[in-house]
Amino acid sequence: MAKTINFDQIVKENAENVKFVQILNEKGELVNNGLKSSLKDEEMVALMKDLVWGRTVNKRLVLAGRQGRIGNLPPSEGMEASQLATLFAIDKQDFLLPTYRDVIPLVKHGMPLSNAVLWYRGHVAGNHFPEDLQGLPAQTIIGSQMLQAAGIGMAYNLDGEKKVAMTYIGDGGTSQGDFYEGINFAGAFDSPVVFIVQNNQYGISVPRDKQTKAKTLAQKAVAAGIPGIQVDGMDALALYEATKMAKDYALAGNGPVLIETLTYRYGPHTLSDDPTRYRPEGEVEEWQAKDCLIRMRKYLGDKGLWNEEMEQEVIDATTQEVNEALDTADKAPKMKVSEMLESVYEVPTPRIAKEIAFYKEKEAN
């Protein structure tokens, strides 16, 4: 009798073979799975400060958005570990390619916060970076940063530089063609790239299980022949370790790694969105109980490394930092069309040069 092919079993094994990484559970307790944090006590405290800083920046920017002081902000509250613990694992010399929801980690990587405010306002100065900042402006074209990251990683290989590129993309972005092209190109050329897929459960209003039949997003790495793992996106310690290991793996000449972070955005897609229209009742509260700050407070508090006073100091300092950034942005000169056009090409094309001259004459009058 001829054997049959069990296609359903193949699909099942695709998901089952994905490794899930966790160090701290929802109660802030260490999980006994053989994986431990390599961070020293002072490094854990520094990471916790980054998480509190990120939460505070987000809350203050949302408030500024409600006041009309910035544009249509895409909030990221709830995703601090997914963004900042992964960032904690790379160096300033490494290249960061964020999405429109990842401006906060871009600021932590070296972008002035006042420039971030201007970016949210659509001001050209929001794309002006310090010369030593290794990164690109936040990408609004979904998925295109995947290809850019692959190319930057390839350039590092060609130049013999021991650096990695790290890029973020959302769960919805993995449905874009550029996503597949990016991981395939990076895999084919062993580009040292860490792809962070932030699975915050919704592509705008579309639930993740309606976006793809794949049980995990990490398994999409299989098609590119690269490692793909799934990490508890609310576990800052696990996210750091996974990203650090992925970076080391890439720098050893093995090529890219894809990390799916299981996370959640507590707020709307943007400030013009009403998430109550598509989220079931109680879902937000369920995820808030898994919050990264709750876990780290418990774990570091039990070790005598963190307390309420320390957290309040970070909140107060960050609040002042955001207020100063807003005030600085308010004083920025009104944007000129000519400046916007000058930011397109290093050497303007004849057509753009003609437009620049036209608008400069108009602005002078």
TrEMBL record:
Its EC number is 1.2.4.1. The keyword Oxidoreductase applies. The gene is pdhA. The keyword Metal-binding does not apply. Its cofactor is thiamine diphosphate. This is Pyruvate dehydrogenase E1 component subunit alpha. It is an enzyme of class 1 (oxidoreductase). It catalyses: N(6)-[(R)-lipoyl]-L-lysyl-[protein] + pyruvate + H(+) = N(6)-[(R)-S(8)-acetyldihydrolipoyl]-L-lysyl-[protein] + CO2. GO terms for molecular function: pyruvate dehydrogenase (acetyl-transferring) activity.
